[in-house]
Design brief:
The protein is built from 16 helices and 15 strands. It is an alpha/beta fold and 436 residues long. It has a domain of 214 residues: pyruvate-formate lyase- activating enzyme (Alpha-Beta Horseshoe), CATH 3.80.30. The strands form three sheets. An eight-stranded mixed β-sheet has the order 4-5-8-9-10-11-12-13. The longest helix has 18 residues.
Length: 436
């Protein structure tokens, strides 16, 4: 796992009630060189003090030379609530003014257990083209510290659920059985890069074992890092599909400080291909930094010469406003022409899902990325991720895929082998108004 250096480590007291949870926590602690005796046990009596400390600890004023700031984020070990959730308001009353209920939910494992992401009705309303897919997750927070990510910038700690055997039986298995149209499931919730904690955490071993109990069911791991060597030891790695959120080296170094060089993700993809695990890349978010053409051209060349991905997707920095752009990413890092266009279009793009860059800017950047990909591979499957119908209509021929039934990186029907596992009741992406 990543060489994290947390400022402090905590454990909710109920963790001690399950030996499996304790053993899992001790494996993680051993990997990062933290003694279990240094872990602070969270009880109802000391909750107020712990919350005050967590609110003040991170970010630190300074970081020792050689350490990565986002790796110092505190860790909180907990158990995920899988049934009826107790009311946390009495505990909130024990905390100082200004404490959010969301903070307590993360401490006490009130995570989203599973979610149907991008249902047809919602995407039709929001003019978003994607595929409905069930997402799973057992963690909240991430060590990458990406500036464009709310958790990466401001998250006070990483919360890690330890009762993942129970999660597989009570959440993952039932969801798989209830939704036969969903052939590939994503392990992605909570703004977490779960691969950063493997293999000590053991989530993907259990996940693939559960998937292997069903015919033709697979799981995506979704990562922005390169921690993959341990996958070779998984007995059911054939049930995995590797998906990388990737970028150019400048963005990786300056905007995703804990993720490592972009080229390492492509090398990791090649390693997975050697293991029989398909590699797929999503340039998401594409951030038009200064010299973005040279930066992304180099990254695409690396992606397609170092590995043989099944697909490559593109998605500009969206879901934001001009204000959030300049308040989260240093403006002097950005392409100044596009920055000015975004500023001039701020009022027009206000409240739109695809802000802050207007349609013509996004299209110009996508066309550049498509052209660069085709320089190196005429056959790799290309697509745009969570974009509008209008953008798909204009780029369909250049992308070379039908937007109503396209192969992307992490959809519910994008099974290994560059094919769609469609069923009679589930034939179309959310480009089309109905799955029937």
């Amino acid at each position: 796992m990543y060489p994290l250096t947390p400022l402090k480590v905590y454990m909710v007291d109920r963790v001690q009630d399950d030996t499996r949870c304790v053993v899992r926590m001790e494996r993680v602690l051993s990997a990062i060189g933290v003694d279990s005796g240094d872990v602070v046990c969270i009880t109802e009596d000391n909750l107020g003090d712990v919350v005050d400390e967590l609110r003040q600890l991170w970010p630190p004023e300074s970081v020792p030379e050689g350490q990565i700031r986002s790796y110092t984020r505190p860790l909180v070990f907990t158990t995920q609530v899988l049934g009826k959730r107790p009311d946390l308001k009495p505990l909130l009353a024990r905390c100082s003014e200004g404490t959010s209920l969301g903070l307590l939910k993360n401490i006490y494992g009130h995570f989203t257990n599973a979610v149907d992401q991008h249902p047809h009705e919602r995407d039709q309303r929001d003019n978003c083209v994607c595929w409905p897919t069930f997402n799973f997750g057992t963690m909240s927070g991430c060590p990458h510290g990406c500036l464009y990510c709310g958790s990466g910038r401001a998250g006070k700690f990483i919360s890690i659920a330890l009762n993942i055997e129970d999660y597989m039986e009570r959440v993952v298995g039932p969801v798989i059985e209830a939704y036969p149209w969903n052939k590939v499931f994503r392990m992605i919730l909570g703004g977490a890069d779960l691969m950063a904690f493997e293999p000590e955490y053991g989530l993907f071993d259990l996940f693939t074992r559960k998937l292997a109990q069903y015919e033709d069911r697979y799981g995506h791991f979704h990562t922005g890092g390169a921690n993959v060597e341990w996958l070779a030891d998984l007995p059911h790695r054939d049930r995995l599909v590797g998906v990388w959120s990737t970028t150019c080296d400048f963005v990786a170094k300056n905007i995703e400080p804990g993720s490592g060089p972009a080229v390492e993700r492509f090398k990791a993809g090649a390693k997975c291909e050697e293991m029989g695990i398909p590699a797929r890349y999503k340039f998401k978010p594409i951030i038009p930094v200064r010299n973005w053409r040279e930066e992304y051209a180099k990254a695409i060349e690396q992606a397609l010469t170092l590995s043989n991905p099944e697909s490559i997707g593109f998605c500009l920095y969206i879901w934001n406003s001009y204000s959030s752009l300049v308040n989260t990413i240093p403006p002097d890092m950005l392409d100044q022409e596009y920055l000015q266009v975004a500023e001039e279009a701020a009022d027009k793009m206000k409240g739109t899902r695809t802000g802050p860059f207007p349609h013509h800017v996004r299209k110009e950047i996508y066309q550049f990325m498509i052209k660069e990909a085709r320089r190196w591979d005429k056959d790799v499957l290309l697509y745009i991720s969570t974009e509008t119908r209008e953008m798909w209509n204009e780029l369909e021929d250049e992308l070379g895929q039908d937007p109503s039934a396209y192969i992307c990186a992490c959809s519910s029907v994008a099974v290994p082998g560059r094919r769609l596992a469609l069923s009679p009741g589930f034939r179309y992406s959310t480009y089309s108004p109905s799955p029937l």
